[in-house]
Amino acid sequence: MPLRLISPPPSFHRFTCHATATPPPPQISTATPISSTPQPPPLTCALHCPHFQSCSGCTHELNLHRPVILEDATNFFRKYGVTDFTFDTCNLWGWRCRAKLAVRGSSTNPLIGLYEEGTHNVVDIPQCKAHHPNINAAVELLRQGITELDVDPYLEDEGTGELRYVQMAVTTHNTSLPAAQRYMNGKVQVTLVWNSRKENSRGSDKLNALANCLWENGGPQSRLHLIHSVWANFQTSDKNIIFGNRWRHLLGERDFWERVGGIDVSLAPSSFGQANTRAFDSLLQKLQKYVPYESSVTDLYAGAGVIGLSLAATRKCRSIKCVEINKESKVSFEKTIGRLPATVNSSITWHHADASKDPFSWLVGSDVIVIDPPRKGLDSSLMDALKNISLVVRKALSSSERPNSFQEEKRPWVLRANEASVQIRSKLPEANITPLVPQTLIYISCGWESFKEDCKSLLSSKAWYLEKAHGFNFFPGTRSVEILAVFKRGPQKKKPGKKKKKHSQGAAKHK
Ligand SMILES: C[S@@+](CC[C@H](N)C(=O)[O-])C[C@H]1O[C@@H](n2cnc3c(N)ncnc32)[C@H](O)[C@@H]1O
């Protein structure tokens, strides 16, 4: 069934914020101390989105280059000794390369978008300014397919209907194109979340017809090639959960590759992926500078291990240990390892485990800990372990003093983690060195309020001090930013300054 696009895909305008009165910020991200950031007039960095206010995705229409919490962040970090907090900004529009959208309404009038704030009413957002333009174009194809094939959108109150959600993820990794053209020619991996238990349940004909329709009209043989692949996820729960446990690859390339942090990374639709590919790449490049060459690194809340593996490749790390609760990320991790440069000679492991269970065991043996938790921040048990890092030191030393006192591992969660782990051993002989205890803690956060609490708590223990902090404009149009904070072990070192004179202290006593 041939389909027409109702409107051509949105033109792909340049993404940087342009100022008329002051020089424009460069196209590629620039990190500047906040006080010296050029200030373009607010309207040139405005959202200009027809869905603003009805859609809950964006909360701010003006000054997309300066999210409102920047002032709070600058003051917060200054209070804790970091006076050179920087903020990087990249694309202000078209930055979202990964979107999960609800599908509601009817087959003749499908609504594909986000919930209205505080409700379960879905707002259609065909011209979303945050989406990569090819997400909007793929949504348009989907809308036409739903109508022409009479696909029923999900009816939440009844639990009926066929299509519940769609996830759209854009890959900009196309080495056959010049680098400058890759982003705008991104291809979309579409996942249809179908309201049935599995692929041969009732209604599967329609699912296949919808997938074929997307492929015929947006696949490589179509006039407008924008679809990378089509997947299905099966979900019948009446809870507010987007994905079920069952995934099926239907059409197109199975593997989805992106290039960030200096490596090719594989991301299955079931694995966590950062929404803002370009800003994430900037963050990774900054992060790499804080990891000494040949470090041993533990990457907690690791997803598909993008951070850890990027460090393995760029910092020649001795070992990388990734810990992630979602077992689906393992496949992507293994595929990414398969494409690491041959020069990488790290000992690499990925553990399917809960970072909050027995957190000490994840901290011993590494000199750098990277934590990238969900928005709610650190699990309290991990926070306690980090605050009591001196116990890690003692534990590590006592185990090194008893090299032959190996005890059989019995803890069920550790055994399970070992079973589900991936292990790539370095070809180098293992150095017989004293067990490492973390000296650097790198905290990556997408939740500003939880980060502040966690940061205060870590600093109050005096086990860590804050050395550097950077912000990244991961979510322009919202009040959220991504934070990269670097902590060092030990109490804050005194900054060289004026010493109190002895005689003046004496004088005070005489008063
Ligand atoms: C913000 S994402 C970061 C993923 C990864 N660092 C990246 O940038 O691609 C947080 C990840 O933590 C995982 N996660 C959540 N709770 C966890 C826990 N208790 N233990 C281990 N991983 C957890 C989630 O599944 C998710 O993949």
Folded structure, characterized:
The radius of gyration is 25 Å and the shape is globular. The chain has a domain at 98-258: OB fold (Dihydrolipoamide Acetyltransferase, E2P) (Beta Barrel). Helix 2 (133-148) crosses helix 4 (204-218). A hairpin with a 4-residue loop joins strand 3 and strand 4 (110-115). The protein is α/β, with parallel strands linked by helices. The N and C termini lie far apart (95 Å). The strands form three sheets. It has a ten-stranded mixed sheet, with helices on both faces. A seven-stranded mixed sheet has the order 5-4-3-6-7-8-9. A two-stranded antiparallel sheet has the order 10-11. The protein has 13 helices and 19 strands. S-adenosylmethionine is lined by residues 272, 274, 301-303, 306-307, 323-326, 354-356, 372-374, 379.
